[in-house]
Write a structure and sequence with these properties.
By secondary structure, the chain is mainly beta. The chain has helices at residues 10-17, 38-41, and strands spanning 7-8, 28-34, 66-69, 72-77, 80-84, 88-91, 96-106, 111-116, 123-125, 130-133, 141-144. The chain has one domain (7-139). It is globular, with a radius of gyration of 15 Å. The model is unreliable at 57-66 (pLDDT under 50).
Length: 148
């Protein structure tokens, strides 16, 4: 029942380099998305955060459900850096079913990456319960190259 690695949208890579998405200062958002929207979420050509959400899970009337904040840069080794944030906790006031994806993006802006939350079935979260996104020790994704 492990989550997949975060997958960066093609356009996001360009936006990182031209600073359209300033990773260390942008207000990053995370959305939960139903499993019925696989084609919408996992299409690598997505560029808009709104267009990557499919049927986002609504929490208290807001589909932008959690803000990990700006991503921090952490050093993995001399030639590899990662983008990380605090773990993200969703508290749901009503039962939500068929959750399968999480999508990162900039509110009102660009899509960054997506993750499939489980390898088997979908996730149901009961009313009043929480879903905690515990990030890998190496963050969401890494940039590497050069020599160590």
């Amino acid at each position: 029942m492990a989550a997949s690695a975060w997958r960066v949208y093609n356009e996001a890579k360009k936006y990182f380099l031209d600073d359209t998405i300033p990773l260390t200062t942008a207000a990053v958002r995370m959305k939960l998305v139903k499993g019925t929207d696989a084609a919408t979420v996992s299409n690598y050509t997505r560029s808009s955060f709104a267009s990557s959400t499919g049927t986002a899970i609504t929490v208290s009337g807001n589909t932008t459900v959690r803000t990990p904040g700006s991503l921090a840069i952490i050093s993995i080794n001399a030639s590899t850096y990662a983008f990380d944030s605090a773990d993200v906790v969703f508290t749901l006031s009503a039962q939500k079913t068929s959750i399968l994806y999480a999508v990162l993006g900039v509110s009102g802006g660009k899509a960054i990456a997506w993750c499939k939350l489980t390898s088997s079935g979908t996730i149901t979260v009961n009313a009043g319960s929480t879903l905690t996104m515990t990030l890998h020790a190496n963050g969401y994704f890494t940039l590497s190259g050069g020599t160590t």
